[in-house]
Every structure is written in C-alpha cells, then in structure tokens.
Amino acid sequence: MDKNPTKEELANKLKPAGAYLDSLSGFANLLGTIQQAENAAKELLEETSSASRANSSSTKNGINSPNSKTAAGKDDAGSKQPPSENQPERGEADDIESKASSLESETAGKQLSLDELLDSLDALVGLGDIKQNVKSLINYVKIRRLREEEELPNPPLSLHMVFMGNPGTGKTTVARILSELYRAIGVLSKGQLVEVDRSGLVAGFVGQTATKTAEVVQSAYGGILFIDEAYSLAPDVGSGNDFGREAIETLLKMMEDHRDDLIVIVAGYSGHMERFIGSNPGLESRFNRYFVFEDYNSEELYEIFSSMCEKSKYILTEDAASFARKLFQDIYDTRDENFGNARHVRNLFENIVSVHSDRVSALESHTREDLTAVILEDLEKAALI
C-alpha cells in the first residue's frame, strides 16, 4: 500500500510546465509585473501613434520626415513619399504621365538643327521644285528677320500654304519637315504637326462643328495644322446645308487671331483644291502660296522601291531588278487620277514580301541568301495581285 504523498510531491504533480507560483506573495508579484507590462505597452502605443500623426502632418506641409528617402541635392517637392491615408498610391495613369513627361524632355533635347533638317529634305526622292520652293521660303523668312533687326520695314507675311497633288507624293512628309524647319528658325514656337481631315473638324449637329474645329486648331498652336482632302469642307454648289462651311469660318477666324504662331496647310487633288480655295473669299486672301506635287516618274518610283528593299535587307537579283524597272515604267505610263505614287510602291513591296515568304517557307532548309534574295518569280506573282 502506497504511502500518502508529501506536500512537496503533491505540488510537483499539480504545477504546470515552466515557471509556477510557490505562494500568494509570488502571485501578487506576478500581477504587478503584468500590470507594468501593460502600462509599458500602452506608453509604446501612444508614442507610435504620436509619431505617425507627426509624420502625416509633415507630409501635408511639404516637410520630409527624418526617415524619408530623399536624394541628396533634390528639392523636397521632388522626393518620393510613402502613401498616407490622405495620399493614394500612384496608379498606372500616373506612371504613364511620368514616362510621357520624361520622353518629352528627352526628345526636346534631340531637336534637329536647320542644316540637318535641310539634309533630310534633300534626302527625299524627287520633288525638285518643292525642295527649291521650301528653301526659298526659308531664305525669305531669314531675311525678314535680319531686316527686322535693322529696323527695316517688311511687307505683310502669310505662311499658310496649299499643297496640290495626287496621293503618295510626299505632301505630309514635306509638311512635317517644314514644321521642324520653322521651329528651327524661330517662326514657330513648338514645331508640331497636327494632321486632320473633314471627319476631325466637322460634327453631326448644328453648333458642334465650331467647337470641334476650335479644339483641333488650338492643339496646333505653335506648329502646323495639316488638313488633308480639305476640299471636302466645301461641297459642290447645290448640296444644301453643310457643316463644312462652319468649320471653314471657324478656321479662318482663328488663323487671323493667331497668325503669329500658327500655320495652316490645306492639301488635296489639284483640281479640287482650286475649287476649294475659290469657294470662299477668306480662303483666297489667306492662302497665297501654292506647292504643286508632281507624280513620281518611273525612275523615282524604282528608287523608292529600292530604298524599301534596302531598309528591310531584301536584295533583288539582276533579272528581278530589270523586271521591276519595266514594271514601274508601265505603271507610270498607264496611271490615272487615282494613281497612288509612293503608296502604290508600298503596296507592291508588301505583295512581294508576302510572295517571297510563301516561296521560302516551302523550302526544306533556309540559308541567309534565301531569306534576303528577291527573284524574278516573286515580282511576277506580286504584280498580278
């Protein structure tokens, strides 16, 4: 029969793992320790809350906290602060805007000089008369500036232009170079080119066209507004009410109000553009410079085609090159009023690339020469598409 356990043995059986209490006094001491821990925790919590409120207040007042990561030498306004409850995190739209601003700053530092822009104009295929007219216009503006410096009088100047010619003759390209040229010599403050047609100016309801046109013109301040197929704004007589006339009236007023920092170029087929300018006395008085873009001849068409091939690393075989020359001569000789010039060349080039890809993909193995060589068969098939 087991003997009764002693008091000490009974205590050992009842105590939990870890520290235990031997007496009521020990229990009292433990309560005091717990109370002290709670007080310390409350004090720490209050300090943390106070620090958080101080940081939030500093951020609102534009003052960085000591722990913020501000780059040395940078303004506080440009430093990156962690988001607070009143300051949402940056979203995708903010990042896009930031990248756009950065890109704009980079391109602003890469603007071409006057000589570089003139070189890019000279590099265009053909357009001999256009190039000379552009250079004469630039010289005229430069001399006007010199006369102003010598306090000599200058006759009134209008730089608004009419570009007349078939599609694909380089009208938009020349307009883009002109915008940069005028920026380089100080005629335009920005030098951007805003391209638009009738659909971008005319609305479907009365009173809306003026607002729509005004917004487009305002976006071109400091640069050139290029209106393609401008004759569509002035339909034939007897066509009834047309909102295009409202667009013209709005355009003419804004051209006059901002003639010192806005150039308008209207473009389209020669015959249609003559009718367009004659449809409104205001157009005749403001557009007095006419640039006629002639169709590219067969040699120029072939030169454009060769340039496209070279840029994409395609090499014509001798018989393919001979066929191409004859093809472009035939295209030029049989052209009509809808002839696309460089656009026609672009379409043919894309057809050739497609035919070449079909032929080469059928080969069991491909060499670098296979991937670059354009043969007579490619041109013959592409010409029939």
In short:
The chain is of the alpha/beta class. Helix content is 56%, strand content 8%.
Strand and helix layout:
Elements (H helix, E strand, L loop, with lengths): L6 H8 L9 H37 L31 H17 L5 H9 L5 H22 L11 E5 L5 H14 L8 E4 L1 H4 L6 H12 L4 E5 L14 H15 L5 E6 L1 H8 L3 H6 L2 E5 L4 H14 L3 E2 L1 H16 L8 H20 L6 H5 E2 L1 H9 L1
Parallel strand pairs: 1-4, 1-5, 2-3, 3-4, 6-7
Describe the structure.
The chain is an alpha/beta fold and 385 residues long. Among the domains are: 114-293, P-loop containing nucleotide triphosphate hydrolases (Rossmann fold, 3-Layer(aba) Sandwich), CATH 3.40.50; 298-384, Helicase, Ruva Protein, domain 3. It contains 16 helices and seven strands. The strands form two sheets. The protein has a five-stranded parallel beta sheet, with helices on both faces.
Task: Considering the chains and any ligands shown, give keywords for the structure.
single chain; 385 residues; alpha/beta; Rossmann fold; Helicase, Ruva Protein, domain 3; globular
The Cα radius of gyration reads 38 Å
Q: Let me know the CATH homologous superfamily of the domain at 114-293.
A: P-loop containing nucleotide triphosphate hydrolases
Please state how the strands of the largest beta sheet are arranged side by side. 2-3-4-1-5
How many helical stretches?
A: 16
What's the helical proportion of residues?
Answer: 55-70%
CATH topology title of the domain at 114-293: Rossmann fold
CATH architecture classification name of the domain at 114-293: 3-Layer(aba) Sandwich
Number of E strands: 7
Low-confidence parts lasting 5 or more residues at pLDDT below 50? 10-28, 56-109
The biggest beta sheet is recorded as:
5 strands, parallel
* Global morphology: globular
Strand residue percentage: 5-15%
Structural class: alpha/beta
Distance between the termini: 114 Å
H-E string:
HHHHHEHEHHEHEHHEHEHHHEH
What is the highest CATH level, the class of the domain at 114-293? Alpha Beta
Mean pLDDT: 79
